[in-house]
Amino acid sequence: MAEAIRHDKTSHQLRLLSDALDSGRLGPVRRLINTLSPAEIGNLLESLPLGKRVVVWGLVDPDDDGEVLVHVGDEVRESLLADMDPDEIVAAVEDLDIDDLADLVEDLPDTVIDEVLKSMDRENRERLEQVLSYPEGTAGRLMNPDVVTVRADTTVDVVLRFLRLRGELPEHTDHLYVVSRRHQYRGRIALAALLTHEPSTPINRLLDAEQPAFDVDDSANEVARQFSDHDWLSAPVVDDNHILLGRITIDDVVDIIRERAEHQALSAAGLDEDEDMFSPARRAFRRRLIWLGVNLCTAFLAASVIGQFEGSIDKIVALAILMPIVAGMGGNAGTQVLALMIRGLALGQIGASNVGELLHKELAVALINGVCLGIGLGLIVLLWFHDPMLSLVIGTALTINLLTAAAGGVLVPLTLKRMGFDPALAGGVLLTTITDVMGFLSFLGLATLVLLG
Amino acid sequence: MAEAIRHDKTSHQLRLLSDALDSGRLGPVRRLINTLSPAEIGNLLESLPLGKRVVVWGLVDPDDDGEVLVHVGDEVRESLLADMDPDEIVAAVEDLDIDDLADLVEDLPDTVIDEVLKSMDRENRERLEQVLSYPEGTAGRLMNPDVVTVRADTTVDVVLRFLRLRGELPEHTDHLYVVSRRHQYRGRIALAALLTHEPSTPINRLLDAEQPAFDVDDSANEVARQFSDHDWLSAPVVDDNHILLGRITIDDVVDIIRERAEHQALSAAGLDEDEDMFSPARRAFRRRLIWLGVNLCTAFLAASVIGQFEGSIDKIVALAILMPIVAGMGGNAGTQVLALMIRGLALGQIGASNVGELLHKELAVALINGVCLGIGLGLIVLLWFHDPMLSLVIGTALTINLLTAAAGGVLVPLTLKRMGFDPALAGGVLLTTITDVMGFLSFLGLATLVLLG
Predict the structure, then answer these.
(1) Using 50, 70 and 90 to split pLDDT, how confident is the model at B116?
(2) What's residue A8's pLDDT?
(3) Do B231 and A225 touch (CB under 8 A)?
(4) Which residues, given as ranges, of chain A have pLDDT below 50?
(5) Sign (positive/negative) of CA torsion A258, A259, A265, A266?
(6) Closest chain A C-alpha to B111 CA, distance in angstroms
(7) Which 3 state secondary structure label does DSSP give A243?
(8) In angstroms, rounded to a whole number, what is the distance separating the alpha carbons of residues B258 and B264?
(9) φ and ψ at B201, to 5 degrees?
(10) Are the C-beta atoms of B436 and A324 separated by less than 8 Å?
């Protein structure tokens, strides 16, 4: 129970906020909001219907505006930006870190982008332009060019004096990077090592030259995998000539992992992870219509299969009653295999070398399940319709469809991936179309052959 | 394309490994494996069928055994432990960090646990016992008791000398914690601050007293939320008396986030995130049978609804052909709403204060979709069966079922959550049962009234 209570901290804040909003007194709302972190404010704004969202957004401390914009989904961000003057937007975003600003900038109106660029000093403007020159979803786009570098031919004492002169370090700095005269990445020095070694220690001796650097065009997925496989907090990014360009920090990686998980969960239902829970009905409707339209076409395909057996159903109406069971069970079994495959593919755990054994195992599972469930289903049908041949037909059809579901569950996502499609997006629709068609076909076909043949 | 290539680094390793295994020369396999991090080795082991897995596991450097065990799912871990002597297990796990050891210990045989405890020094044994005294899924269980503390009434210089005497800091130390004489948590000092301030600076001036501490019984979900909302790298854990007990680091939080995402994706298909892709068919079958059995019961419920309209289907066989369309489209539409709700509930974004507006929006979307798709469906049915009344019936039934799906999509997960069930696990089954039943009932019922009444 403690779990449930703690877990609902956000919805507790949401309730307090809604009560305060409903009472019409905005003072308490403003005080409540300004005790929260930008991410928490973003989360709350995402939870609010459009009308209330605009009111609350107006009460957020302008100093937090930029960080809040970074922390909300694309669609919610659009609704917040629509409510701001160009001047407000410039003021909100100009102090953001380069990597956050790069993340936002493409959602901003062109005139605002120009203003933001003008308001920046030359160094930062060049950095932003550099980061923006790399495509989305690459290490170059994720990195922050603000890194502290030292040279190897010096001592801890010299570095300490340099750092004291420099003052603050960029956020989440856990290592300094060692570069050559030409700014080529050589390795890194842990802050902890600087603190635990005598001032006279040569930097060379503390150098960790093992830490590899990301190429600027490495994919965000690869970055996330390496970070979580190696438990890194930060990692350097270099270009083709091994020149140090910036560093990626774990907080961005956490965002990638969360977004990817949301993407997987929502794309299975034909939705986008940036979908606003409260997007206007008109807008939500259009997006869903496409998805439902695709599903309607596949439903007609299945219906046309049934249509082929009109005569059989006309003679034995029990077929109509029972046919959705065979089709539906195939869909359920296929979904299980598909879920395992999508996870395996996302982790890179499935390839030509093991797909054969995987298919073999899934077909074996389907066969045992088909026999067990087929016997169970046959017995119930026998009690219901008193026709042993009908029982035999439905049990056999179920087994055939479970085997189809297993083969489809393994091969459909694999084929989609090879063809360059996202298995999480299209896998479910395609697989249930196959199990529907095969369910109706095997059951009605067998029934026609055995019972009416 | 670069994306696809990079992303498949793991499956590339997998192929190399399989080729080497197939060739029977184990030398290259051993060399390949020992270039990988423990997490990567774990990932590869999870990708291997049982026979090959055991061979590769035998080739892993014994020094890595413990870390590899930490990085695999429960079921795969079991298969690896089954292949080790008690002595090997003790040697593998005795050097692990306390938090990792705590994670493993419950999967170990009792005799091995005794051996491990005996092999530890008293301080570490007490720390392990302390961590194990907190339930799984709490901050206490996630924390590592190994923290570096300092007192506030000193200077940077004194702390630097203390750290140089102490030597290495625990992994992922980004802050030192400041405690009172009674070891109560007071705040934290960034390593970066120690490096960038003059030796004479009083520690008091660098103290960040704002960083809150987790209660030892805070839930893992709450820990994950706070870490990602605040971009923390580490955070202290205290007991009821504010005594500092340990600290949680971001790498554990990344694991929680990944596990939770996998749990959500797999539990929708009635699977566990610890499921081994290559678990023996016999074992996999038993687990899936339960899930399919539940689905079989719900399928019978839907079939019994159809059974009520046996007479109508007997007269108009077109009803049998078309009825799965209405039921299936409801299921698809409901799944979309359910996916949004499950995300919203997981983020704490849905509560009593906004569920009304959410329901209102989803019903509006369903109504527009129902009218559009209903007209489309009606037209196609008109072309197929040349019966305007049948078109009217199916269009109306579709709209009714989409409205049912919208209401169910919002209310089913909410109700499940209130009752203490996991909406991601049971939501899909319950919702499609509702849309199946309502789909058949509305279409066959309306047809009986309008066409045969």
Answers:
(1) confident
(2) 55
(3) no
(4) 1-7
(5) positive
(6) 31
(7) strand
(8) 10
(9) -65, 130
(10) yes
Put simply, the answer to whether B167 touches A196 (Cβ < 8 Å) is yes
Q: What is the pLDDT of residue B5?
A: 36
Q: Identify all chain A residues contacting B229, using CB atoms and an 8 Å cutoff.
A: 37, 39-40, 43
Residue A352: Cβ within 10 Å count: 11
pLDDT digits (tens, 9 = 90+) for B64-93: 999 999 999 888 998 899 889 888 898 888
**Token pair recorded at residue A353:** 């070398």
Strand ordering across the sheet containing A149-150: A149-150, A175-179, A185-190
A153-184 residue pLDDT tens = 999 999 999 999 999 999 899 999 999 999 99
Select the residue of B197, B348, B357 nearest A49 (Cβ to Cβ). Answer: B357
What domains can be seen in chain A, in order of their start residue?
2-134 (1.25.60.10), 149-250 (3.10.580.10), 281-451 (1.10.357.20)
pLDDT for A5 equals 36
Can you give the pLDDT at residue B8? 54
3-state secondary structure A203-217: HHHHCECCCCCEECC
Closest alpha carbon to B279 in B72, B429, B36, B84: B72
Smallest CA–CA distance, residue B129 to chain A, in Å, is 23
Alpha-carbon torsion (A171, A177, A180, A182), positive or negative: negative
List the one residue out of B309, B123, B196 whose CA is nearest residue A317.
Answer: B309
- Whether residue A364 and residue B281 make contact (CB cut-off 8 A), yes or no, is yes
pLDDT for position A273: 79
**Are the beta carbons of A317 and B327 separated by less than 8 Å?**
no
Q: What angle do CA B313, B318, B323 make, to 5 degrees?
A: 75
Quick check: helix, strand or coil at residue A35? coil
C-beta of residue B402 within 8 angstroms of C-beta of residue A296: no
**Which residue, among B62, B69, B29, B26, has the nearest Cα to B46 in the 3D structure?**
B69
